[in-house]
Amino acid sequence: MTGGGAGGCWRRNSAGRGLGELPRWWWRRLRRRQQERILGLSLTMPTVEELYRNYGILADATEQVGQHKDSYQVILDGVKGGTKEKRLAAQFIPKFFKHFPELADSAINAQLDLCEDEDVSIRRQAIKELPQFATGENLPRVADILTQLLQTDDSAEFNLVNNALLSIFKMDAKGTLGGLFSQILQGEDIVRERAIKFLSTKLKTLPDEVLTKEVEELILTESKKVLEDVTGEEFVLFMKILSGLKSLQTVSGRQQLVELVAEQADLEQTFNPSDPDCVDRLLQCTRQAVPLFSKNVHSTRFVTYFCEQVLPNLSSLTTPVEGLDIQLEVLKLLAEMSSFCGDMEKLETNLRKLFDKLLEYMPLPPEEAENGENAGNEEPKLQFSYVECLLYSFHQLGRKLPDFLTAKLNAEKLKDFKIRLQYFARGLQVYIRQLRLALQGKTGEALKTEENKIKVVALKITNNINVLIKDLFHIPPSYKSTVTLSWKPVQKVELGQKRANEDTTSGSPPKKSTAGPKRDARQIYNPPSGKYSSNLGTFNYEQRGAFRGSRGGRGWGARGNRSRGRLY
Between 20 and 30 A from 150 (CA), which of 97, 303, 391, 454? Predict the structure, then answer.
């Protein structure tokens, strides 16, 4: 990624291709037109009858067709005629093109004139025939021309251009890619945008014999050049392109992609939480990296950055996406990555930062007055969604340093943590019972209402937290339990049956027992009846999912200082 700018955010130079960078064939064609105007040349405009007569001469000549250069020139001159003459020329020129290599340049220019005609039917016919010109050294030029024609607003023309590009792709994939990437790197914004879109949607439709290993290597090489200067939306599309390549499905291939994403995320730079573009860039990059992580492709570099740079600034994060809970988005991504974290250099330091952030969302029980009532006016707010993410991340990283709670914390700190866990677990139990009661007996369509969907997710969250808290209350703390994060897909199970089996499938405690150790039950704060049930009907769990905002709206702003409107 090219650095610089406010917060080092992504950008794309909007200057496009300068006049001096136009291809040589374009200049030759321009000079030819200028010469015609200056000299007042008036090419002979053949009639429909003359076109048919010269077509017949060429068709009857069979193997000696190349000897009738004058007849082919008459057909080329047909592009200067009327509508009927142009339509015939659009069909006849490509039919005999291969027999007159010395007129190749003139023939392609003539067909291009037809591709720019005011009559849409002539344009469509000319575009449809363009693949016939894609022979030998002409193919990259034809690919370049077709890529530029992607900017058409006519849907039928656009489909013809797409089909033509696919057609020449099957002839010569490398040559076609040369034309496409030439326009992506140097073309106008609309052409660049649609060329990238073409690659992201059409490559996956090509057969294996077209997308060979060598072709995929070329795509990767050229994509790296483009990624030096892209917008956020373009980056997402290129990750879609690259992650779909067969050669990058291996462990080493996935590792290459992770390194590409890490470079774009600028993980070497200090994080700026007040810059919404930079926050968005980090989240977008991380979303692209998460599906690539596995037990062999580690997330260590990203997890380290989140712990060191992002968590301490969690409350200061800003986002350009309206209505997005940016803090929850960050915590969800961290939780997903934590499962695949490898050996971390500063594990204890980062685990402590994660632990301290977890404490912020696990309140101490309110102080009791002499009469046993709360001394304060309000119960602490239990933020289940945040705690699920933080507790899961701590549980995953804690496996790598299992004595953290017992050996790395002093006795007072550990006692304080257990009191918080006990208080949270007690509230959790009340809420789980309320949710189960609300969902009891509901199956099928009844569970598909918006209200019940929220309750089902809420039950999943609270069950997950419950299992993790039970683990941490073991002496010594255990890190063996496995849970599926509430927003991640699980195997299909009848929800009615799942509710009945919840105690065994999720590791939830029996209804009459809390998640904490019974020997310390006397220390748990007893909330008055109904304290947690009052919010049941208006539970506001965020259902955006981990990837909201990844492809829409702003991306990383514009290329350079100019905003880019997305057409589709």
Answer: 97
